[in-house]
Amino acid sequence: MLIEVIGVSLDDVIQANAGEADRIELCQSIVEEGLTPSYGLIKSALHISTIPIHVMVRPHNKSFIYSEHDVKQMVEDINMIRQLGADGVVFGALTTEGEIDEVVLEKLLEAAGSLDVTFYRAFDLVEDQQQALDTLLQYGKITTLLTSGGGRSALDYTNTLANLIERTKDTHLTIMPGGGLRVEDAGAFQEKTQANALHFGSGVRIDSDYEEAVSASQIKRVRTEIAGIV
Description:
The protein is an alpha/beta fold. It is built from eight helices and eight strands; from the N terminus they run E-H-E-H-E-H-E-H-E-H-E-H-E-H-E-H. Helix content is 37%, strand content 16%.
């Protein structure tokens, strides 16, 4: 089981390491569902972390529809992230019709090079999930799909997530449920979905509050809650 934790500060990175998370999704402005973090934060986080860091590449919170100028900025950010030595990048792109934007996606994948790639929760806004999944499965560079199943909270979409996980068995793509996951629900959620990766934001923070820091003990509690569940 891979446990990924959102980090927005160096303190979060330290706590995620102490809590023995498997990976950090590094971003800024968590209340806006994540934006590209600063150069300084990325560089410093990579310096102190002993676990992999995947960096968010999202230039604004308006939508997942990107202009030519947005894409140019994203490519530059990915180049910088790669040069700093991050382990992966996280992004998503859609067309105005609610489909995966393959033109943008291919430009970003080219910039990513050998970095691991997570397709972000833009997937939750697509018009046709099956079609979108088929599209993503064509790209071997994309190793993870972060999704709530289609809404704000993954807890409300366990059946959808279980189906997505079943569809991607024996493929290069790992479905990583995320969005509204809480420590106390982790065991029951895992029993229903049989996920191989889980993504936590406020659920592993002090008082489950986005404005508070990541809690190492909360991350360790997740391990306890899902122990023995296959």
